[in-house]
Amino acid sequence: MKRLDIRTFFSSSTKNISTNIETEPSEPTEPIENPENNDGNNSLCLNKSKNENSNPVIDLGSLESGPKQPILSYPLKKIGKQNRSFSSKYYEKYFWIEYSVHQDSLFCFVCRHFDNLNTSEDIFKKIGFNNWKKLSDKLEKHSNCKSHCSSIEKYTQYKQSKIHGNVHTQLSDQFKTDILNNQMYIQKIIDIILYLARQGLALRGHNEKQESSNKGNFLELCELFCKFDNNFNVKYHAYLSYTSHDIQNEILNIVSNSTIKVITNEIRKCGKYSLMCDEARSFKEEQLSLCVRYCNGFEICERFIKFIDCSQSRDAESLKNIIINELKQLEIADIPIVAQTYDGASVMSGAVGGLQTKIREKYPTAVYFHCAAHKLALVVTDTCKNIRSSVTFFNLLESLYIHFSQPFNHSTFILMQKKLGLKPLKLTQLSTTRWACRYKNCNNVKMNYESIINTLEEEINNNKNKYAIEAVGLLKGIKKAQFIFNLFVFHDILLTIDLLSQTLQKKNMTLGQATSAINGVISTLQDKRSDKSFKLLWDDITNFSKKFGICLNNEESSKKRKPVDNQRLNNSLVTSTIGSREDNLTGEKYWKANVYNTIIDNITNRMKTRFSDESQKLAKSIDNFFILDFDGSLEFIEYYSHNLKIKMDVLKAEMMIVNNYLNSQIKNWTIQDLLSTVTLELYPNLHNLLQVALSIPVSSASCERSFSAMRRIKNWLRTSMIQNRFSNLAIIHIENELVKTSIESKQILEEFVKCGSRRIQLTL
């Protein structure tokens, strides 16, 4: 049989080779670079042998694939008198060798790729070794040479760098990790500050020293985080913990400015807004609450801006300068103000020298609206002050509140309610600034009348303290017919007024809707004057009085001296007044004529006066505008068309088109249908004026709500707070929903980094 050499082996049958290879199919061949040009990332190339015509390295391994070590039936080669071939057992001992099928030769994988100095033998780098007789000695000698050992070391480092990166990369990765840890730590500090500020809680404590048992909410929360977050614990107890009050103030200022930026961006997008202001005392300072109302699309937004200390400047001119300067700082001073709403104080509402007049000098479109909720509260207050029976009634309610404010009396009152199976309710203090207090007090007394009677009787019977004498007078007062009648009448009337008050305080209330609600309440009060309404109320009073044994006869008329006729005038015709005649009205008729109708008439007339047709003239015009009545809304349109660049002829056409469309599509369409139909692109003039109509505030209740927040933030333990920190905390707390949805801690961190260099690394 003819012996095969290496040439006949390849030419005769490649099938034999492929069927004996146990490894994966060989990858596509790649040209391998010269070692001198290797950068450590690409495969190195063998130099082409001068004695071979074919490329000697087309089947050798790359750095990605590793040494090529095929296992097959290796061809025999006659060396001396014996036929010898390569054996795969050498792979186990020398991991770095690789076999070229095309050349039937061995190469050193590591020297081919990592001997950049060309100190290794070319036989293992370029030419290939195939003297199988001396293979063992040659491999042993090569494995111990200096250049090969250096290549092995480089190869080992290369593999490690592929896993962990080189030294520079490792240092860079550690640097990035440190920055990421620092950022995560500062973000958690920001989140803690945001949580406390949004909840209106104090950050700092009275004593923040290390040995203090209570360092304040902020530091105590940080220590709580340390228990569950080891990385936070390490950073927190490091030299730079970033928990000082200066850092707190800086972060609060960033959050506040970011929140205001969101608001001012929405105002600029709308292109118009309304102004709402009010003043309130905060300990020894007078704070001005500045709020705005605008439309985000057609969504009504009422936003708090800030508190301004106006203790040194409370006249109209100074207040105007404060407000204008603040609008300039907010960069919205050049945007038209379409309305302004304040309470009825002369410094705010004065027609000659008031704040509203001075604001209109700069913003002609800023029409003034007296806060409707304040006007309604004045109606109730004036009514209660100007009717004699009402004054007596509410004074007695106030005396009941004072009596049951005493700890012993209060606890007895609560226990009595529980004993009767009632839900414990507290009597409220009467106040001219708390709009709902009168209704709540009437309701609580009515619901707990039996508890009050029993508690006062128990106090009198026990006679344990000085309040027993007071209880005698109170018990006598609340068992009178006059008290019972006034209790039911005011409970019924104030319930209607309270519902209107809550409606007027809503942020999304429009001027047209408010006018409709006010007119509805006036009509309701007028209807209550009817005999039918009084009869229903009288039946309730009668049943209640019978339950507690109270006589409803007129006590005052029974005490009057019966008038005596002049005997000289007997059989005479008298055409002039000769004195008071006997009042035959008793019981139901007396209370209706002398108390019920008096209260109804008084409160109805005061509402008509304060919410007169003249004062509601623009409101009616706006109401007509919402139903697309062009002629009926001319006053509103003409008032704003010039300054807002409204084209009246185009506006009229837009209103007709939309009106015809809505009538054809919807039988009884509403304002919401109108708003969902009108778009800025199709109806720009109508869209613009609709935003104006929606931006006009009904009340300054948002300012009043900010004062409630002011009491929570700046309480008796936090009076030393500086103005800027107070105002920042206020906007975060009051606009907490906007902060939660629009402000992220990552965004705050980016601003914090931009504010100045930091002693801990936060950026690359």
TrEMBL record:
Start-end of Polar residues biased regions: 39-48
Biased composition (Low complexity): 29-38
Coiled-coil positions: 439-466
GO molecular function, one term: protein dimerization activity
Classification via InterPro entries: DUF4371, HATC_C_dom, RNaseH-like_sf, Znf_TTF
Keyword Coiled coil on entry: yes
Protein name: TTF-type domain-containing protein
Region described as Disordered: spans on this chain: 17-48
Domain TTF-type: 82-168
Top-level taxon of the source organism: Eukaryota
Alphabetic keyword roster: Coiled coil
Pfam families: Dimer_Tnp_hAT, DUF4371
